[in-house]
């Protein structure tokens, strides 16, 4: 089998390791022997002194520069050895922001083709959430939360100051790692497995997504739409049942909307897990019903018959006055899904707790439905969808909890 070296490039917290893991998992399914060589892991395990503080990454810190180069060389040598022996694809996972470092890799690999994958993503909000998550690892244990975040941000600044984007490298792909979109691509050499690799880069990979709707609310009891109603007694019981149901499944991430009902529904799961990161995403807020917000369906029919009629005639395209329609929901729901997948990285199990219209849109993202059928997808409050979507497996299962 032809050998390949993949080199990740990008500032910290741009999704490089997630992409590297996704490549390894997918390629291994095809019996390709892949190994990741991560500089950060070596730094954390081998360097005796504390290297989490930003000063370690300052270009002025000569000892820091020396140590980081030493780690890069060590990984390069080990990767080279892996490829000379049993390995098929070695992935060098580090920032690799300088041209000098990148040409050194090409020289060391000699005849083995090198593919650079640069991850870019400038979504500030996502970066903040990602940094908050990254600074929870033990190397920041001796700092307060705000110190850790400040140090991580300063570290990024040090890298940003020296960043040399990909341009002259013969084989490179620039990937928007939030949208999974190739924004630039050049392959001069014959890159083994390239069509497969490209496909993995642009695909969403979901090991296990549990898509849940919040339990019963006071508004649901009255058939009232929108608002921010809390759960009823029955809704709280449903939340407890849900927490119990997932007790033995390790859920590292749970995404909700910013509304009370989804957050209340998530509480028992969070409580039953050792460590579970809760991320409320406003992208998953329920469809905005504008002037109809907080009305019952009967009140809409009586007070705004024109809305009732127009909506029944074309529910997917109808947009509430001052509100949204299914058609306009699409963009923000897709962004919410991308954010959830980006933040949860290669987590094996994730939960999204959303709303009726929102969950219909999330489902239709993974499961083809004609537009006119989407607003009628059945979204119960005592069952959830288990979704698996990898390149080799698609699964949709409606399960009771
Ligand atoms: O009734 C609950 C609810 O989530 C409302 O808040 C929302 O307007 C509605 O469902 C969406 O469903 P439909 O599009 O069928 O009215």
Describe this structure in words.
- The chain has 401 residues and is α/β, with parallel strands linked by helices.
- It has two domains: 4-201, Rossmann fold; 206-400, Rossmann fold (3-Layer(aba) Sandwich), CATH 3.40.50.
- It contains 14 helices and twelve strands.
- It has helices spanning 16-28, 39-46, 62-84, 99-109, 124-134, 145-162, 194-202, 218-222, 233-245, 260-272, 297-303, 305-313, 326-344, 356-366, and strands at 4-9, 34-38, 89-93, 114-120, 171-176, 181-187, 206-213, 253-256, 277-280, 350-354, 383-389, 394-400.
- The chain has a six-stranded mixed β-sheet, with helices on both faces.
- A hairpin with a 4-residue loop joins strand 11 and strand 12 (394-400).
- Helix 11 packs across helix 12 and helix 13 (326-344) packs across helix 14 (356-366).
- The longest helix is centred in the N-terminal third of the chain and has 23 residues, at 62-84.
- The protein is elongated and about 75 Å long.
- The two termini are 47 Å apart.
- The mean pLDDT is 95.
- Residues 225-226, 286-287, 289, 355-357, 375 line the site of 6-O-phosphono-beta-D-fructofuranose.
Provide keyphrases for this structure:
401 residues, alpha/beta, Rossmann fold, 2 domains, 6-stranded mixed beta sheet, elongated, binds 6-O-phosphono-beta-D-fructofuranose
Write a brief caption for the model:
This protein is an alpha/beta fold. Helix content is 42%, strand content 18%. The chain has two domains: 4-201, P-loop containing nucleotide triphosphate hydrolases (Rossmann fold, 3-Layer(aba) Sandwich); 206-400, 3-Layer(aba) Sandwich (Rossmann fold), CATH 3.40.50.
